[in-house]
Amino acid sequence: MFQPYEIPVSVKGIIFDSAGKIWLRKNSRKEWELPGGKIDPDEQPEETVKREIMEEMSLSVKVGDIVDSFLIKIPDSIDESEGVLVLIYYCKALGPTGEFEITEPGVTEFKTFSISEVEKINIWPQYKTAIKKSLEKWNYLI
């Protein structure tokens, strides 16, 4: 009998600051990642990334085109060891609405990185690829 492959979906946003640096978040595995999170029931991916960035960074964003997507397994994860589908959208910052999140479990650190710095930090190669793909869009939308 056919058994569907059920995995979580994580939606991430690529956000550049006015100097052309990209916002990243350090996770509990001490890796840098794009801000975002899991999709909620009855939520569209664009709504998810908007909500998650607001929750994490108190930042209002305009969600643009999807930049990239990939499937990855995270061996030590509670719900991603069999895989997680990651959707990455280009987002344009509209403005801050408050303070950054401080209640997320584990390490919560946000920082901006130049493109050359991204090459040297602990970040998935798939994120690096998506960031490079988004450079042309950022230049167009600023």
Describe this structure in words.
The protein is α+β, with helices and mostly antiparallel strands and 142 residues long. The chain has one domain (9-137): Nucleoside Triphosphate Pyrophosphohydrolase (Alpha-Beta Complex). It has three helices and seven strands. The chain has helices at residues 45-57, 115-118, 125-141; strands at 9-15, 22-26, 32-33, 36-38, 59-72, 84-96, 109-113. Strand 2 and strand 3 (32-33) form a beta hairpin. The longest helix has 17 residues, at 125-141. The N and C termini lie far apart (51 Å). 25% of the residues are buried. The mean pLDDT is 86.
CATH superfamily: Nucleoside Triphosphate Pyrophosphohydrolase
CATH class: Alpha Beta
Number of helices: 3
Task: State Rg.
Answer: 15 Å
Helix content: 10-25%
Low-confidence stretches: none
How many β-strands, per DSSP? 7
Distance between the termini: 51 Å
Strand order of the largest sheet: 4-1-6-5
> Under the CATH scheme, which architecture would be assigned?
Alpha-Beta Complex
- Beta content comes to 25-35%
Overall 3D form: globular
Average of per-residue pLDDT values = 86
Biggest pleated sheet: 4 strands, mixed
Number of domains: 1
User: How do the helices and strands follow one another from N- to C-terminus?
Assistant: EEEEHEEEHH
- What is the structural class? alpha+beta
CATH fold-level label: Nucleoside Triphosphate Pyrophosphohydrolase
